[in-house]
Amino acid sequence: MAEKSITRTSTLYGPHRISQLGFGVYNSPPEVCVQSCLTALKNGYRHIDTAQLYGNEAEVGQAVQRSGLSRQDVFLTTKVLSPAGSADETYQKCVESIRKLDPRNDGYVDLFLIHNPDSGSEGRRLLWQVLERLYDEGRAKSIGVSNFGIRHIEELKAVAKVWPPHVDQIELHPWCQQKEIVQFCEQHGIIVEAYCPLVRNTKSEDETLVSIARKHGVTPNQVLIRYCLQKNWVPLPKSDDPDRIRTNADVYDFGLDEDDMRALNDLDQGPKGAIVQAVDNN
């Protein structure tokens, strides 16, 4: 069945909730990012995903301020890639991100993630402890990871005060379903976010995908987003094209049936299907 609306949320923990459809801004140049975010917010998105690496945190913050929406009505995520020297220096770098996104004196982000596990065991420990500090202070309402496999998440348990992470953001789409880490997250109550849900348009002419889109009178991208929603993932489609931003949000008046989902599930290529990266579970 089709979900009711773009305002649908999933429980992170306790009273905190995350909008189940997000808007990604990877590779969105600062000069167009503000307008893209404003278009997204105008069309009902209430969840924007950025990162220090993207170089557009301030622009996302400007868009929220200019939108006329209450800060509490927009879920903002950012990510830290690697330690900036000491724990205190890394903490200050993260505080700077929060100030860019929410420049009020009591500003916060809804979700702060470690961008990937590539900093090594000690680097991951330092980053997680910095995020825990932000969480304790209320500057990050929830904390999580991205591109982490099972072993990385399990490793955190030995040093973490907050465990499990609230979110793991990984590459997910029919060609890269990452079933092992998804199952692990589901078993531990970790929200699964899907980046690259549109496979960067590299599969827009896939025969199975096109056939399902034609069947429902929608675009291939709408099918891919709908697929993620029905998997209970949080998809983060990205576009700077106003029409595509609007179309990508229009996924709530149709649903994929069992045959559709089975056909899309059968497209899985395992780690080879990743266009960015599959996680390392072992």
Describe what is shown at a glance:
The protein is an alpha/beta fold. The protein has helices at residues 30-42, 57-67, 87-101, 120-137, 150-157, 179-187, 207-216, 220-230, 242-249, 258-265; strands spanning 9-13, 16-19, 23-24, 47-49, 75-80, 111-114, 143-146, 167-171, 191-195, 234-235.
Describe, in plain words, how this protein is organized in 3D:
With 282 residues, the chain is an alpha/beta fold. The chain has one domain: NADP-dependent oxidoreductase domain (TIM Barrel, Alpha-Beta Barrel). The strands form two sheets. It has an eight-stranded parallel β-sheet with strand order 3-4-5-6-7-8-9-10. A two-stranded antiparallel sheet has the order 1-2. Strand 1 and strand 2 form a beta hairpin. Helix 1 packs parallel to helix 2. The longest helix has 18 residues. It is globular, with a radius of gyration of 18 Å.
Q: Which terms summarize this structure?
A:
single chain; 282 residues; alpha/beta; TIM Barrel; two-stranded antiparallel sheet; 10 helices; 14% strand; globular
Q: Between the first and last Cα atoms, what is the distance in angstroms?
A: 36 Å
Radius of gyration: 18 Å
Q: Quick one: biggest sheet?
A: 8 strands, parallel
What share of the residues does DSSP label as strand, in percent?
Answer: 5-15%
Which structural class fits the helix and strand makeup? alpha/beta
Q: Give the domain tally.
A: 1
Order of helices and strands: EEEHEHEHEHEHEHEHHEHH
Oligomer: single chain
Coarse shape: globular
The CATH topology turns out to be: TIM Barrel
Question: What's the overall average pLDDT, rounded?
Answer: 95
**In DSSP terms, counting alpha (H) and pi (I) runs of 4 or more, how many helices?**
10
Question: What is the CATH C-level name?
Answer: Alpha Beta
CATH architecture: Alpha-Beta Barrel
Strand order of the largest sheet: 3-4-5-6-7-8-9-10
Helix content: 25-40%
Number of strands: 10
**Unreliable runs, pLDDT <50, ≥5 residues?**
none
What is the CATH homology-level superfamily? Answer: NADP-dependent oxidoreductase domain
